[in-house]
Request: fold
Amino acid sequence: MNPYLALAAAASAVLATSVFAAELPDLGGREVVVVTENTYPPLQFIDPATGQAIGWEYDAIAEIAERINITVVYENASWDAMIPAISAGQYDLAMNGITIREDRREMVDFSEPYLTSEMRMIVAGDENRFEDAASFAADPDLLAAAQPGTTPFYVTVYDVLDGDEGNPRIKLFETFGASLQALRTGDVDLALSDSTAANGVVAASDGALKIIGDPLGTEDFGFIFPKGSDLAGAVNAALANMRVDGTLDALNKRWFLDYKMGQ
Reply:
């Protein structure tokens, strides 16, 4: 099966089918501040042709806003500040391809999953020194890029290398874009990302990057909220409703099949 179609099917399967339009809450037009990083195509990113922020998550939030009657205001923040800022109540919701993890639930509330993806290995287009996680780990001269505290970081540590979070073979960067730039310039040899972003950046690289090896596991994405936020339930109701009426399937088709990065 086409990997995008598989992802789309997984996204549709994770939401319950019991919520219908008549049951959606009306939040009275209240202002909701949504934070993101805009570095994660095709979920959220800056369109190089227009300079506008676009993506799957923008379209999903716009649809949710209409269904539960909220007024969305967008803010931008770095990934490393995002979960602490949501936890402190600085923003109402974050969308950033955020993996649902139990340790993060101690700080924030998650929506129901809206996408399921797989972790993939991104390398230079002409890379021929290794072909999978085992052969990368076996060569001590090879370096990996990662953002601290992210799923790619932990998968690199525990699934690719030796379980040492201080391993000097992992070079830390503030953003996913900086990791990719280091990969392009040869400062590192590997960057991990989920299949959503990996397929997007490779497609836009004009052969400069490629994906190798088998998937390194699956992850569910969710929006995050301050603990106890009533917004989570309303968003979940809208997501379930969007699943029932085919809106999520339409978003998946638009962003994972029809949209071509760089075109």
